[in-house]
Amino acid sequence: MPTLTLIDSGATYDVPAGTHLLDFAQANGLDIPFGCTRGSCGTCGVVVEKGMENLNEISDAEQDGVELISEDNARLACR
Ligand code: FES
Fold this sequence. Notes:
Blueprint: E1 3-5, E2 12-14, H1 21-27, E3 45-47, H2 60-66, E4 74-76
Antiparallel strand pairs: 1-2, 3-4
FE2/S2 (inorganic) cluster binds at residues 34-37, 39-44, 65, 76, 78.
């Protein structure tokens, strides 16, 4: 099972493979800002410091939202 580590707090979580990060965050009381939940606003952008190779391939819909974020290794928690 993949492990999620939050850089800010150092907290770690086991996350079932295939889980959307935003769904996991909401179910576990983690504060990830969000808006549209469809990949178009970029509000839920997160920076992946390590393990990018373990994420699903970025979709065209997510790519459009990621382009709104000016950070390297950004992904959308809702996607
Ligand atoms: S909540 Fe809008 S892109 Fe994720």
